[in-house]
Structure formats: C-alpha cells, structure tokens
Amino acid sequence: MAAHVSLCAFLAVGPQQQLQPSLHIPPQAKQGKVVVVGVEPTYLGLGKTGLPVWMLVGFGAERLGADMNRLLALLFHQGVLDEQFLQLQQLQDETSPNFVSEVVTIFFHESEKLLTSLRSLLMMVEGDDDQDHEGGLEYGKIGVHLNQFMGSSSSIGAKRVRNVCLAFRAASDHHNRHGCLRALEQLEHEYCYLKNKLHEFFQLEQQKVLAAGVRYPMNHYNNNNNINS
Q1: 38-223 architecture in CATH?
Q2: Torsion over CA of 173, 174, 180 and 182, rounded to 10 degrees?
Q3: Do the beta carbons of residue 157 and residue 84 sit within 8 Å?
Q4: Which of 76, 120, 127, 186 is 20 to 30 A from 94, comparing alpha carbons?
C-alpha cells in the first residue's frame, strides 16, 4: 500500500459479496460438476431460480460490467475524469490486461510523494507575500512539483485533480501561502476521492474477470458431445 496511508481510506465494495468463493459445498452439489477458472462457486447445483450456477455467474459478470459503466458515467458526470481515461482504456488488450490499473497505480504512488513534498515546502514558507530569496526558492520548487502533478493527472484523465493543480499553481506564482494551503487541502480531497473511486472500479473489474472465467458444466459439455456424435 502507498506510504501516505493516513490521507485516504479505501472504500469497501459490498454488493458483489455473494459471488465470493466458499469452501463449503452442499451435498446436492455433487449432482453436477463445473469446470471453473480462477474461482470456485459457492453452489454447484441449481440456484433458486432453477438456472445452473454457470449461467447465474455469467449474469453476475454482466451485472458487474453494468456496475463499472455506471461508476464511470458518474465520474464523468462529476467531472472527475475526462476522455483521456477512455483513451487509456483503449490501450489495454489481452496482452496487457492490467495496463490501466498499473498506470494508475504508478500515478498514485508518485502523487503520494508529491503531496508530501508540497506540504513540507509550504511549512517552510514564513507567510503570505514572502519575497525573500529563500521563500522564492520554495515557491519555485512548489511550482515544479505542481507541473509534474498536472502532467501526470492529465495523462490518466484526472480532470478535477488537474484543475485544482492549476489553481494551486496560480496561488504559488503570487506567493500566496494562505491560498496555497487552501489549494493543498482541496487537492488532497480530490486525490482521495479519485483514488477511492478508481480502487472501487478496479475491484469491480477484477470480480468481473473472475465471474466471466466460469466454463460450461462438464456433464452439459459431455451431453452435447454425445448428441453431436
């Protein structure tokens, strides 16, 4: 986990818990066998709906995909993300299935360090309109860090984070320490919100991959082979 632990607390994902694997298999489950990739279903017989579990889990994958789309739509509506995030997703394929999450993880890791450095630099500035040589140097370093933050946030489509960085940079250019402190608090807030929501998104994505990994029951497969032969 990233070093700046106190800054953000990950949100728990609840609605999908019924898809979690279980070590207990009821006796009636022995009536059918299921070939599973990546996850062991909690029940291998028929569900209450009368549908086999492999079909129910398939529906689960569709539901998880719908949850992912709803979450993305919310983040776009709120202005948290922009189209750059979609372009990043287009670079992900079967050869690099975790490309987006890996890029975002690097962004989070670097952002934690930048936020820590920004707060440390602001603590070294005496007050507003600090025009002395040392104060000017600190504001110059703040500007460099913010340029890095703006570039990295733009690369993943973190629109609101980038916008706060712009306001932070304006306050820094005017040596406005009070404005910088307000901007830093807002930046930390936006960063935490983005981190929590993207963590939730990638959890849904992983659960969807697991749910989609279920294969047809072996007896169903064998029956089809007997019919065809």
Answers
A1: Up-down Bundle (1.20)
A2: -130
A3: yes
A4: 76
